[in-house]
Amino acid sequence: MAKYIFVTGGVTSSLGKGIIAASLGKLLLDRGLNVTIQKFDPYINVDPGTLNPYEHGECYVTDDGAETDLDLGHYERFLNISTSQANNVTTGKIYQTVISKERRGDYLGKTVQIVPHITNEIKRRFRLLEYKENYDIIITELGGTVGDIESLPYLEALRQLKRDLPKNDVLTIHLTLIPYLKTSQELKTKPTQHSVKELLHVGIQPDILACRTERHITDEIKEKLALFCNVRKQDVIEAIDAETIYDVPLLLQKEKLDDIVLEKLNIVNRKKATLAVWKEHLTNLKNPKHTVNIALVGKYIELMDSYKSIVESFIHAGANNETKVNVIPVKAEDLTKGFTEILENVSGILVAPGFGERGIEGKLNAVRFARENNIPFLGICLGMQIAIVEFARNVLNMENANSTEFDSKTPYPVIDLMQEQVNLINKGGTMRLGAYKCTLDKDSKTSEFYGTTEIEERHRHRYEFNNKYLEQFEAMGMKAAGKNPVSNLVEVMEYKDHPFFIGVQFHPEYKSRVVKPHPLFIAFIKAALNYNKINS
Length: 536
Ligand code: GLN
Prior knowledge:
alpha/beta; about 525 residues; seven-stranded parallel sheet
């Protein structure tokens, strides 16, 4: 039977519950335990797939095609695991299930209520992963902040679960903020006292307090928090602001969080988390020998969380190349005129995924600039589609070639809607989602980078390369380097007359890991370093 760790948040949002949960998971995993992490989000959207990236940042996609919160990306990157549909639950999903059961008559005439029907469904979902695999520990991050109206049913379900299961099987870590007041030069505990009171109010005594702070918390403060919040002093853990998110597992290990957790869960485990590869990554990250500037051309760059996995992939691949990667956010719309200046000092251009017409012209310009100036180029999803349109227009002379997403009447629909998509009405969960196999051409650069011809990558899109035009593209050097072995859809395009010009219909960024950086990103950074060498 699995044991449960819940992570709640107090005082404010954005304290980094996801990173704390992922770091603890990493420590436990390194001690030989089978761990997974799930996130429960209190919003009513069934999943974040329909959300504008400005709302919550990137929508992360799992192998089995779940569109999820970006924290799942942290879980996968930190723990090197694959999450699934069951790892991200929203209030929308909970209500959808309960309401369809009600419509089917499953409640046999009963009045359907938040307690017990909604809370029972939450509890069922809390434990869903337990029946899938033999996990020792399931960590659950509860989204939102204690005290929010939306969070109440989740906290009530947690209270019940604590009551349903044996004492040592469920524990709660409350992540809270200890603000530092400059004027009085003091760390303040009052907000934490209040947020713990909120928890006690709904019947939950936190077992561990993890205190986000910008200064070290003293023994005295620990004692005070322990007294007022009803925990042992040693269960008050400092979570100090870290230089990078990758420092957090080590900082928490120093605070003995993993030991305390195991003691409370009554798990005997004398192993120490060595974090060997992790530390190597950190050393490389902090001691770069080279620097490269990479332009990330996108539509949502005001909120870089919209590109979280891409930015993280660059960090992994940079460390792997002992290189500091400066990701320069470039707003696609700024590239419509006089753009050379913006792209002048970059050694690589990545055109990002996206939806809708805004910024398309600028992205086309970025692709052309990269292609004509031999600047390493990586186009992801929409980025690849734009590269195809640019090539059609400027090399194949197909005037007004386009994706039918932007011009349904284009004379050259080089990117077109997949047949399965034509008659779809519902927007939620209806894209081509999740992992698909792809066979790489053995003579392609891409297969050389991957070191294999059989790969599997994750997708999230409706439009595709139109195979009707493939011959014309290939005749001019733009080759299909990877295809879906079943549907024959083009998944990778490579331009031969260029040092590094690759477009991928899938999202490699979802599969980059701290201990296993993605081969395409590694190769892209290598190409950028090469570009620097040639042009310096
Ligand atoms: N808008 C494009 C499509 O739906 C690309 C999507 C993406 O970049 N994820 O096909």
